[in-house]
Design a protein that fits this description.
This protein has 285 residues and is of the alpha+beta class. The protein has one domain: Protocatechuate 3,4-Dioxygenase, subunit A. 19% of the residues lie in helices and 20% in strands. The chain is built from six helices and nine strands, in the order H-H-H-E-E-E-E-E-E-H-E-H-H-E-E. The strands form two sheets. Strands 1, 2, 5, 8 and 9 form a five-stranded mixed sheet that branches. Strands 4-3-6-7 form a four-stranded antiparallel sheet. Strand 1 and strand 2 form a beta hairpin. The termini are far apart.
């Protein structure tokens, strides 16, 4: 059993008490955007750990709440909201850098690679597809040749490279280059829910694969959210017992990261526990 990392989460992954000033700023940005006072653009790379560039309309956010499938794009084609990379990015910004290791470019992220312990993350199968599009063109143009670095916790809420018991592992982390449709697809497992955070997946977008594997020229940092009904179903299966309790104390509306709106970050889900799930999200950059 891995230890909880609540203290790290609250300090770095921005709990509600920490995020209140940030959330107020986000809401002010959205109000100003509605009045035509600010453009709908993302934050610079050096702001990616604290400030959201979400310009989600209140009607869009309202329609997303409680939805099983969620929404994979914004009618206004706003840039994907900027979110914290959290305390366990593995991109060199907080200790270890997995991006420069041979083997990180891969589609199946369930196993560790290289000289690590060689473990495999267990859990309900999950296939994640992100479609990166150009926000400036109205989200109609795929961003071919960009790169996405994706990572998340295992079913016990532990992050490889950082959490006790899995510091020698690097599973549930991987990089891919977007194809002609602007898409990357990762084979993984459904992440657990640890205390204080709604179930999520982190990702970073880079201008190219060369930029990603050099850990440079980061353009966007955001997170994907999961709908509650799917989480409830998955967490009722073997191995996710701790997630049931943690999720029961949370909601999307009060969680520190997604409480200011999540319509652009809610995955479109299909599947089952037995057959595995798919999660799709459009990522305007």
């Amino acid at each position: 059993m891995h230890r909880d990392h609540d203290d790290d989460v609250h300090e770095h992954d921005r709990g509600l008490s920490y995020d209140l000033p940030v959330l107020a700023r986000r809401r002010m940005i959205r109000l100003m955007a509605g009045a035509g006072l600010v453009p709908l653009v993302g934050c610079s790379a050096d702001e990616d750990t604290s400030v959201s560039s979400s310009a989600t309309s209140s009607s869009a956010a309202s329609s997303s709440k409680g939805s099983t499938s969620g929404s994979s794009s914004s009618a206004e084609c706003a840039t994907i909201p900027e979110e914290t990379a959290g305390p366990f990015p593995g991109d060199g910004s907080n200790g270890v850098n997995v991006l420069k290791e041979s083997g990180v470019v891969r589609s199946d992220i369930t196993r560790s690679f290289g000289d690590s312990a060689g473990g495999t993350a267990e859990g309900v199968p999950l296939t994640v597809t992100l479609t990166v599009v150009d926000a400036a063109s109205g989200c109609g143009t795929p961003k071919k040749g960009a790169a996405v670095y994706l990572w998340h916790c295992d079913r016990e809420g532990a992050y490889s490279l950082y959490s006790e018991g899995v510091t020698d592992e690097n599973y549930l982390r991987g990089v891919q280059e977007t194809d002609e449709k602007g898409q990357v697809t990762f084979r993984s497992v459904f992440p657990g829910c640890y205390e204080g955070r709604w179930p999520h997946i982190h990702f970073e977008v880079y201008g190219s694969l060369a930029d990603a594997t050099a850990a440079t020229s980061l353009t966007n940092t955001s997170q994907l959210a999961f709908p509650k009904d799917v989480c409830d179903t998955v967490y009722a299966s073997d191995g996710y017992g701790r997630s049931v309790t943690n999720l029961s104390r949370l909601s999307l509306e009060t969680g520190g990261i997604f409480s200011d709106g999540y319509d652009q970050q809610m995955a479109v889900m299909k599947g089952s526990v037995a057959g595995g799930y798919t999660a799709d999200l459009t990522v305007p950059v």
